[in-house]
From TrEMBL, chain A:
One of its GO terms (molecular function) is ATP binding. NCBIfam families: sufC (TIGR01978). Keywords: ATP-binding, Nucleotide-binding. Residues 2-246 form the ABC transporter domain. The keyword Manganese does not apply. It holds the Pfam family ABC_tran. Belongs to the ABC transporter superfamily. Ycf16 family. This is Iron-regulated ABC transporter ATPase subunit SufC. GO terms for cellular component: cytoplasm. Gene3D superfamilies: P-loop containing nucleotide triphosphate hydrolases.
Automatic annotation (TrEMBL), chain B:
This is Iron-regulated ABC transporter membrane component SufB. Pfam families: SUFBD_core, SufBD_N. It comes from the Bacteria. Residues 211-453 form the SUF system FeS cluster assembly SufBD core domain. Residues 143-203 form the SUF system FeS cluster assembly SufBD N-terminal domain. One of its GO terms (biological process) is iron-sulfur cluster assembly.
Amino acid sequence: MLSIKNLHVSIEDKPILNGLNLEIGTGEVHAIMGPNGSGKSTLSYVLSGREGYEVTEGQILYEGEDLLELETEERAHKGIFLAMQYPVELPGVNNMVFLKESLNAIRRARGEEELDSVKFMQLVKEKAKMVKLDEKLLKRSVNAGFSGGEKKRNEILQMALLEPKLALLDETDSGLDIDALRIVAEGVNALRSPERSVVLVTHYQRLLDYIQPDHVHVLSEGRIVRSGGKELAHELEEKGYSWLKEGAAA
Amino acid sequence: MTATPNTVDELIDRGYEHGFITDIESDTFPPGLNEDVIRALSAKKNEPEWMLEWRLKAYRHWLTLEQPSWAHLNYPPIDYQSISYYSAPKKAGDGPQSLDEVDPELIDTYNKLGIPLEEQMALAGVAVDAVFDSVSVATTFREKLSEAGVIFCSMSEAVQDYPELVRQYLGSVVPHTDNFFACMNAAVFSDGTFVYIPKGVRCPMELSTYFRINEANTGQFERTLVVAEEASYVSYLEGCTAPMRDENQLHAAVVELVAMDDAKIKYSTVQNWYPGNAEGKGGIYNFVTKRGDCRGERSHISWTQVETGSAITWKYPSCILRGDDSTGEFYSVAVARGRQQADTGTKMIHLGRNTKSTIVSKGISAGHGQNAYRGLVRMTPKAENARNHTQCDSLLIGDTSGAHTYPYIEVRNPTAKMEHEATTSKISEDQLFYCRQRGLTEEDAVSMIVNGFCKEVFNELPMEFAVEAQKLLNVTLEGAVG
């Protein structure tokens, strides 16, 4: 599904990722953990195609295709979804309109029929129920004035609606209280499927109490320094990231 | 001030026999402005003596005036002697013979707006033999209106057929002494629209210049007068959403609205004239004076404008809130992109007690566009309990455009309440990335954000107009990012 080889990325000539390797198979859930500044968010942005991130070396293959050749929206059309750490507010843009335009843009690009308003409405209501998002929020401007938890749930709603093949969740747990975290995690779990790969980018282990990853990777100074099963997350929780650095040096 | 395509009106006009049309069909005055030109113009239109005197008085006053320079606009001086003040409508045969001869860029825009082929040909001035359906539409339209007692005709006709009404109201809201451009208009206005709604009548349909017949060549110095008698209602739409490559560089129109007790006038404009090319060459200079007089108690005047065209826009649709408990509203979207410059806003003059006004202005600047909001809210000493709410938002796209806000507030009554809110925002890289990550192209994302920004104003437009305004904005802003 996704194969990252020797990835080097700079922002304004400052190297952030330094030879990152990662293989993600279809249907797998991977957690990428690491201290602040290790390059976690950079990885999410490079995969989703944000401007300003310069790939100086290496390659990324997504379903056998050179991902770096694709425009941001083309990646979305091909099933890459990024749930953002700080979802952006779009004042004046109705949430429902945004969701519909987005879904139909992707359906169009895939040669599928666009959903009419009635069908869309049914679908969005069903999905909103699933992520326990208040229907009132659908009628408001996208994320404008939403609480932190509402914004994150709105991201998961979009994910549920767009049904991506590769979902990237960037620090989805940050700023959430335990109830909100549980709701978001339930949403993600409900979307787990053999056809869908998930990458959880997180600083803390606590999200992984609710979403069980198949693989855990530790990112430090722009490369993956350790990979393992979910027990690695617990080990990290106990010993902290400094232990890892020592371990890597040893 | 109308973007109504003259050529469409010309086509519509065929089959109607109006006295002066045949007289003027073939000639254009040589450039220049003097009393003889005004006399000749008035004679062409077979105007009564008082009308000529009215024009001459204005002209003599105009000679004493200087072109205003206070606006945030930059343009070379206009040579008023190089303009022809009378130009007969072009004969259909003068235009291009087929769409192949028309600027492909223009055709492209028509297609994007979804304008049917026949109409495209008419808009572009192509000679077509097909008689428009609009002729019959216009006829039934007129019958229905006259049943209700509504007068809806060209200003030239009104001068002939309703001289008393015209004399009573013409210049009563915007006197010739008002400003340089209004004064010039009074001297040389070519034609325009006259609307009269009798007491207690609710005009049975939206009046639109689009369906008006006998309208050829009113573009340059148009004069519009709308009078709503006691407890009447009218909604008037001017403009056409199709871009028109007008050859006239200078437009100086005047619109006067008069609302008596309990009357309501809703006046909507969509202006999309040629904005000039990317370097700022060509394009219309649009200097318009629009003013409504809430003369009666509880009267209500509402202006809605979507200004996307013209190289220069100088326009301040205003309300004089004279009657007690009267209401004035101004809803505006103004776009300045490329090298466009817009200096637009409103004036709300509170004279009566308990008068209310609302101002919602949305300015969008892209490319090298410069957009200025200029608004005056004046509460006079007698305006007890007057209230105003002003909301003035600017949206910047790219980093070479400009937004400017000049609010003038004069409150001379301690019971008056006045609120002013202003915001400036920019379409951010974050927002565009977010939208693109969800599968939208950058242009779809921009148009979605812009339409969201303008929603409050679009909601004030009649339904089908709102849809077209939205489409128009998308075309206008295409390629505005990056």
